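can u pls check wat happens w/ pyridoxal-5'-phosphate
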Amino acid sequence: MQLIFEKGAPGRHLSLLPPCDVPEVAPQRPRTEPLELPELSENELTRHYSALCKRVHGVNDGFYPLGSCTMKYNPKINEELAALPGFTQVHPLQPEETVQGCLEVYAQTEALLNEITGMDAMTFQPAAGAHGEFTGLLLIKAYHRHRGDTERTKIIVPDSAHGTNPASAVMAGFTVVNVPSGPDGCVDVEALAAAVGPDTAGLMLTNPNTVGIFDKNILEITRIIHEAGGLCYYDGANLNAVMGLVRPGDMGFDVIHLNLHKTFSTPHGGGGPGSGAVGCKAFLAPYLPGPVVRREGGGFRFAAPEHSIGRVKDFYGNFTVVVKALVYLLTLGKEGIPEAAENAVLNANYMMARLREKYAMAYDQLCMHEFVMSLENLKEETGVSAMDIAKGLLDNGIHPPTMYFPLIVHEALMVEPTETESKETLDEACEVFLRLWEQAHTDPQALHDAPVTTPVRRLDEVEAARHPVLRYAGA
Ligand SMILES: *Cc1c(COP(=O)(O)O)cnc(C)c1O
């Protein structure tokens, strides 16, 4: 397929922009050469994007059980409301009194999410989950430093953690201490107790964790960290399993991030925009990035937290993602939010129960919103790997589950169906999984060769990772 730069012809164009209605200002450093932009007619442009659309698989195309990523269906009404001119035709530097509605969106969303998570204050500046982790860790750092407690340099991370957790801790200037999980997939509490000390700045944990299990020792875990003088960070990317049912604040967490683009209904997977909202307990609120929205008199204004760590993004974060989250929260309401979580858990358990008949579960117990299978035995018996099964799923119109993660499970496939899939879809997917299992025994070569129906066949992932081609070199 040709790139957009290889299409069109000089001088061909479409008029997308309305005539300028403000005085033109001469640029201070005018460009010396014309910008090399594609020149296409509207027709060519439409066909280009339409062709690209057909080459990807999204939630609108079919089942997408990508574990830990919560690829739920996002109601289209959210998009429509977020696109209202009152939300989109505003400028971030407009005077506060002219954007009171937008400020109220922040204030309302903050209040609802604080209620759901058991936090006291929130910032919507971070643009992604990992960005939220980084921000939350800077809060922890600022808190210790402000108290003169400068020896706390270590962040404890369980071995089941999402890769972004240790990466964010290092980015924030901490050293990472790994603690192992027990055979039940939960944190090894004895190992944790042995790992804490006067150098512990905090712990990062997601609960339910990345193997889909709610850590039953959570209160003891957060107590151990607090007694050692550390703070507890909750990676809220898995909140879809528990929203409206239990609150990280009640589990003992001091600071959290939420992936509004996973749990609270913004399409994701294409690189954004997202929102990694960071919530914290009142004692950490003075360190939040500024500005934050505060209610004052009958209206709202921006305020700078007293000991703010500073900005982590320009302006106020990805605003329309917050609008979509608010629409979602208000649509589902107090009953709908926990019901969505319960259905997410039910769907995962339903699929696990059906697949267990052939596939080995890494942790054979009730799961939360996702479950992890280990294809180690299947690979030994048939030579068919988790990768082969994933590619076979593509030929059946299903996006593969998360592969080879978490690292503690060999030949892992991590399945998260989400609450928005019907029983029919789950049944169809289970039948495909079971059929592929049979095929692994009868015709393993066919699975090594998969996919055969996709726009590209199997890619050389090692080559892509080692020698990524990131620049367009020219036609
Ligand atoms: C997705 C995810 C993240 C990171 O979120 P991004 O928005 O992709 O940066 C962190 N932790 C867990 C458990 C996740 O699933």
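The longest strand covers residues 200-205.
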